[in-house]
Write a structure and sequence with these properties.
Cyclophilin; 4 helices; Cyclophilin-like_dom_sf; alpha+beta; 6-stranded antiparallel sheet; CT_A_B; hydrolase activity; single chain; 2 domains; 323 residues
Length: 323
C-alpha cells in the first residue's frame, strides 16, 4: 500500500510526535509543530496518536492513493479536495485507489496535518519517523517530499468515515495571537523598562519563521542591565557563556527581535533567554503566518501549570468525541 506524490506543495514532510531523549546529544525533539492537530488527525482515522502522517505548510501537496484508505486533514483551514470535490476538514474521509487528494488555497493558519489509516510506514530513526531535514534524519529519506516519491502505508484498522472533531474542539490562534510566557532563566539581564515593554508592545511574526524558530518584530529594542561580560560570553550584552536552550525558550540576539525556539531548534548556544513560552501555547505558534499580530502575556508558574491541565482536558474531550 502506498501514496504517490504528484506535487509536493511548498514543504511537506513526514512527522509524528517526535523523538524525545536525544536533546543532550544535539538532536531536537522534532515532530509535528501542532501536536494537537496531529493527534486529532490520527484519532479520526483509527491510528495511534503517535503514528506518522504528513505536515504541509502554506500549500498542500497533491497525492494519488494507490489503495483504498480513510484519511483526515486537520490544522489550518486549507480545504481538501478528492478528485476536485471539496471535503470537510477535521473529518474522517474515504478515498479510493486511484483518487487524488489535493488542496485549495490557505484561508487561515499555517500548517495542515494529513493522517491516513495505517500511518506512513517509513523506517524508524531513533524511535521516531519524524523528518529532521538539517540532519537528514527520519521521514522519507531524511528530506521533504518530492514529485515521484511513493510513501509506504501500514495496515490500518477498520474505522467509520464521517466522524468529525466538533468545531469547539478545533483550537486556533486568536487575533492578535496571545502567547503566554513564563519569565526566568536570564530575565534579570533586562532593565525594568525593557521587561515592561516586552509584554506591552505589539509584535508581528517575521518572514523568518520555520520549524527551527519563529522570529518577531515591531516592539522596542530591549535594553540590558550593564555588566562586565564574563569570559567567553562575547561583547554584545545579549551574549552569554554557552548554555542549554529549553524547547520554547525566547532568545533576543542584540535585544532587537525575539526568536521562539521550536521543534527543530538547536539545543544550546550563546544568546540569553528571557523566558519560555508555556507548553500549552506551543502548538499555536505552528499555525501563525508571517505578519500575524502577536502579543506576549506574562504568567506565573501556577498559571502555566493550570494552562497545561486545561490543554490536557481539551485532548481528553477530543478523544471522547472520537470514541
Amino acid at each position: 500500500m502506498a501514496i504517490k506524490v504528484l506535487h509536493h506543495g511548498l514543504a511537506t514532510t513526514v512527522q509524528d510526535l517526535g523523538r524525545p531523549g536525544y536533546f543532550h546529544l544535539g538532536i531536537p525533539v522534532g515532530g509535528a509543530m501542532d501536536r494537537y492537530a496531529m493527534r486529532a488527525a490520527n484519532r479520526l482515522v483509527g491510528n495511534d496518536e503517535g503514528a506518522a502522517g504528513l505536515e504541509a505548510v502554506f500549500m498542500g501537496p497533491q497525492l494519488e492513493f494507490l489503495h483504498d484508505a480513510v484519511i483526515a486533514v486537520t490544522g489550518a483551514d486549507m480545504p481538501a479536495k478528492i478528485d476536485g470535490v471539496l471535503q470537510p476538514g477535521w473529518t474522517a474521509l474515504k478515498i479510493r485507489a486511484g483518487q487524488v487528494l489535493s488542496f485549495d488555497f490557505l484561508k487561515s493558519g499555517a500548517r495542515i496535518y494529513i493522517a491516513v489509516s495505517g500511518g506512513i510506514d517509513v523506517p524508524l530513526a531513533l524511535g521516531s519517523r519524524s523528518t529532521y531535514p538539517i540532519g537528514t534524519l527520519g521521514g522519507y529519506k531524511g528530506r521533504a517530499l518530492a514529485v515521484g516519491d511513493e510513501l509506504p502505508v501500514g495496515q490500518g484498522s477498520v474505522v467509520q468515515d464521517g466522524r468529525s472533531v466538533e468545531e469547539g474542539l478545533r483550537r486556533r490562534p486568536g487575533t492578535p495571537a496571545e502567547l503566554r510566557v513564563l519569565p526566568g532563566l536570564y530575565w534579570d539581564r533586562l532593565t525594568d523598562e525593557a521587561k515592561k515593554s516586552f509584554f506591552a508592545d505589539p509584535w508581528k511574526v517575521a518572514p523568518e519563521a520555520d520549524r527551527m524558530g519563529y522570529r518577531f518584530r515591531g516592539g522596542r529594542k530591549l535594553e540590558f542591565v550593564e555588566r562586565k561580560q564574563p569570559f567567553g560570553a562575547g561583547s554584545d550584552p545579549s551574549n552569554i557563556v554557552d548554555s542549554c536552550y529549553p524547547y520554547g525558550s525566547i532568545q533576543v540576539p542584540g535585544g532587537t527581535e525575539p526568536i521562539i525556539l521550536h521543534r527543530d531548534a538547536v539545543s544550546g548556544g550563546g544568546y540569553f533567554m528571557l523566558g519560555t513560552v508555556i507548553s500549552a501555547d506551543m502548538d499555536l505558534i505552528g499555525q501563525l503566518q508571517p505578519h500575524t499580530p502577536t502579543r506576549f502575556v506574562e504568567v506565573t508558574m501556577e498559571e502555566a501549570l493550570a494552562a497545561r491541565a486545561e490543554r490536557q482536558a481539551l485532548i481528553e474531550r477530543m478523544r471522547a468525541c472520537l470514541m
